[in-house]
Amino acid sequence: MKEDKIYIIGAGLSGLVAALELEKAGFSPIILEASDRVGGRMKTDEVEGFLLDHGFQVLNTAYPEAKRYLDFQALNLKTFDPGAVIMDGNESYIITDPLRNPLKVMGMAFSKVGTLLDKIKMFSLTQELKKKTFEEIFETPSIPTHQYLKKYGFSDQIITNFFNPFFRGIFLEKHLNTSSRMFEYVFKMFSIGHAAIPAKGMGEVAEMLRRQLSTTQIFFISPVEEVQGDKILLKNGDELHADRIIIAVQPDKIMKQLQGQFASPRKVTNLYFSLQKSFLARPMIGLLPHGKLVNNLVFMDDVSDAYSQNGRALLSVTVLENELDDKELIQQVQNELEEVSGVKSEYFKFVHLYHIPYALPVLDDLKYSIPISECQITDQVYLAGDYLLNGSINAAMRSGRIAAESIIHSYMPTH
């Protein structure tokens, strides 16, 4: 049975973790990856002396699955300062630690962002969520996040100035319609863990998983056309027979019977500019509560200096839905950057742009975990991916582990 052919489609985090767990059980899986490297949505490119992540992403150090599979010290994690720089028109102010230590937040800056009551409510929410288990959070009745914040009693001021831009950048949607379960989960993670990036880019996370594999074969540039029963049809016309298959990509793309079962994913545009020096000058995220296009920005080399090898500052800008063509988008973002920073738009030298059509899954029923039986959809086919649980690095890894456990279980003798 250990010689059985187990194929994993997709070398993203869920596919790599599935392979790791199968190896531990004595199997030698085969990964088919459409692109030229591991990582899925988590990749880092080298361009003009910069490291560019595909979309602004962070690793939260409190994620249980990340702790299980990653060596944070070897990744040389660089952490963001908790809090944010609020950039509102010509004015900018820093709020430190609003999620981790609300009652110690600096008075003056916070009063522009929210009220004393907001500070107390933030503290009480932090304490409540620290006591709640992950399972309890995902069993709580779900309402849209914007309703949850109002219901909890937060002022319009703090919702507009902090919660909206901060969580829009995480949920990748403008109206905070995302489930309150996800809000509670993320709020808890940020209040107990740190937002961090590996010194040499988010692509290092997937590379670390790949380096732990020993008997798994990975075939790159091997896009799959379709899965039919126990057969995998490759786009080059080859046909493979499999004893078990884990689909660790969006399954409706390769299984005809699943078409129409998934909501369109959230997309995002990530632009990079270089500048002579950072105007934030600290490892913090900049939030634009009234940004026309820009939701948030960060100078990546303020967090890890390895992101720039050429002496210039590297600015990552996140833009949510927009209908502009690339040239117009770049110009308008440069103009908006001038408005908030006072630095002339032409000094923001455009480096690169990523359109990320699948940035996050859109889910109605968010979960923290599922039983191993729920990821099996036919005798041979198993699913893995964050869309089974919730849109997070933790969920991607966990779903890969669950799929592998389900296959391992399928080989156990039944009594």
From TrEMBL:
- Any GO MF annotation of the entry: oxidoreductase activity
Task: Enumerate the transmembrane spans.
Answer: none
Annotated Amine oxidase domain ranges read 13-408
Q: List the InterPro entries hit by this protein, alphabetically.
A: Amino_oxidase, FAD/NAD-bd_sf
Protein name as annotated = Phytoene dehydrogenase-related protein
- Source organism of this protein record: Algoriphagus zhangzhouensis
